Fold:
Amino acid sequence: MTELREPDVLVVTGMSGAGKSTALKAFEDLGHEAVDNLPLSLLPTLLAAPTERPLALGLDTRTRAFDAAAIVEAVAAERAAGRAIRILFLDCAGHELVRRFSETRRRHPLANDRPAGDGVARERELLSDLRRHADAVIDTTDYSSNDLRRAIATRFAGGRDGALTLTLMSFGYARGVPRDADLVFDMRFLKNPHWVPALRLLTGTDPAVAAYVMADPAYAPAFEAISALLLQLLPGYGREDRAYVTVAFGCTGGRHRSVAVTEAAALRLAAAGWPATVVHRDRGEDPVVEEGANEVA
Structure:
């Protein structure tokens, strides 16, 4: 199997309206040379040209002579020749794409004389092969432009040559499961520090909260089992040439239990040779208040 370095070519593709232009600008900020909507007939020439910077290549259904299968074949051929090339797919829920096109008063490129929803459905079908072969998928349904830029910086800045880029994320189920998580663990079986007045306004990065979470009799056996599972799975992802893996830990509000477990998991995995980027998606949010119930976190 050819050992792949950090990509010197990154194909950025996905659904129209999912944020490709924002992504390419973010890659430019990271030092990439960005090229958008190059005709496929010129792709071999571009890939053969010497480059001093990594290349972020934007390709989507607006590209002249677009052919998803041809792009997948071209990427496979480059990899077989030893080229470090990856595919990033930007996805988004259909209802949100329709809302974005309506809000900006733009026409969907595949639905000039039809509702935007028809174009979204057609495009999803055309892109299915590329999504299936993508090395990384970022779902931007709940992202602002700044959120997408941060996600790209987290995943693609400063990775190690040939190494799996691992992200550990805490989140709150009340605000939705991260759409681009590869593995999700539910920490809501642990005692909730929210119900301890002295801990309520703290978060899982505070030692008192972490100690409370770890003192739960259910914590140690569950944490050891999860750690062992991750240490078993991660090498397999690497052998299969997966470049990016996101592991998410959730609790109700994303401020206490999930944060504490994510921090502990990062330490355990780093000690075993798997350093990770840690993201606490909802730690800074206010405690969740459910209608007709007391607040929970």
The domain at 9-156 is CATH 3.40.50.300 (Rossmann fold). Residues 1-6, 290-295 have pLDDT under 50 and may be disordered. Residues 219-239 form the longest helix (21 residues). The beta strands are 9-14, 33-36, 55-58, 85-91, 136-139, 165-172, 183-186, 244-251, 276-280.
